[in-house]
Amino acid sequence: MAEVLKTMLTFLMLCMAGIASGHSYHEYQVSRCFNSYGVPKIDLNKCEPTEMIAIVSALQGISRHPGVCDYGEGDCTDMVTTDTDTKLQDCVGQNSCSVIVSVSWMQWCSAYSTYNYVKYACVTKSETHDICMHQISMGKQSGFMSSPNYPNTYGANIDCTCKITSKNRGKIILTFSDASLEWSKNCKKDYMQITEHNMTTPVIRCGNLPRNFNYTATRSSVSLRFVSDGWKEGKGFWMNYNVSTAAKISCGPTFFEPSTTVKPIPTEVHLVSDPQPDDNLDEPEKAHQPTAGDMDKDTSLIGIIIASSISAILLVGCLILLVRFKRKRHKQKLSMGPVDPNFQHRVRRPNRDTTLARPPVRPPPPPQPVPLTPELQLAASNNTNKRNCNIRKSYRDTAINRNRNTEREEVQDTDDYI
């Protein structure tokens, strides 16, 4: 019972701290029925040009009363679909937005949703502090913090830290309304790092965090560090912090150390071919300077990428030349024509397009027979009779010779028998 009362007291203190700090937000509710005419669309257009949208909650549900689209107690509700949630998340940080929603099957309710409900707030841009801007404030209990240039993409090679320290061990809660960073394995590129006082293992996050992601600190001091590399940038983050007691907030570049002394400007100019290292650099700055080994690794990686690209281009060019050469050889074989009348596959087929095909060439008419005179007819008949006589004579001579050979063979067989 004591823990419940303590939790309720802490929540009331946080709410009072937010009101006392002067942060007043305008909250609006909007819903859309799926059984109405037109494209189902939710318009978030109540914010002023100097304000930004912060999504408080987004639900889909089935109303107990027909024709009612607003959320009511006792309605069967569920989280919106992934597609709708992604579209709503893109609206965070803008001053107006329009989202097309879609009906979906609600497994817990065993029915299709009848409406989408969104509750959002309009936050003044001047209440959001850039994490990379130098700031030291005392006594604040709530506020907003964002990455540089939010909601647009942040810059490259950023390393900034903001430290929140509460008095009398006050409770610190960080709520991320939006967080979209470059994703990488083990968060080696762009990342956010949350570190508490005397914590050995910090919490590191990258990529896209779920909306209204909360982090409750267990100690009285929390540091949020934001780091980006020079390769790819994202939308950044937008965070709300709440402290149960008065707190001290200190933000700025991670390795920035203010100095009250002014360094003298040298009047002599030395022409040096190679720049000498600065011995006045602090150790953290030296640790973050690129070394020769890192530069060699980057150069070798770029060389490998260039060589692979050139090899791929040459391989594609060789394949194209080979295909063109084979097609040319095939066309030459077709143009040679058929070698044999039965070799039909080497004959080029005529064009089937009648508009482009040439008309067929008609063969010449056969020669007409010349009429014979009576003398030529008599000579032709004599030649024919003479040819027939010669044929009969050759047949007769062949038969006589065959009979003589047969008689000679019989006589020979008789003599052999005797």
Structural class: alpha+beta
- How many beta-strand elements? 17
Q: Count up the helices.
A: 5
Helices and strands, in N-to-C order? HEEEEHEEEEEEEEEEEEEHHH
* % residues in beta strands: 25-35%
> Unreliable stretches, pLDDT < 50, 5 or more residues?
1-22, 258-290, 343-347
Largest sheet: 9 strands, mixed
Mean pLDDT: 77
What would the principal axes of the Cα set say about the shape?
Answer: elongated
Distance between the termini: 152 Å
Radius of gyration: 49 Å
Query: Level of helix content?
Result: 25-40%
Topology:
Blueprint: H1 2-20, E1 26-33, E2 41-44, E3 51-62, E4 76-79, H2 82-91, E5 97-100, E6 105-106, E7 111-112, E8 115-124, E9 128-130, E10 135-146, E11 158-166, E12 172-180, E13 191-196, E14 203-205, E15 213-216, E16 221-228, E17 236-253, H3 283-287, H4 292-335, H5 374-417
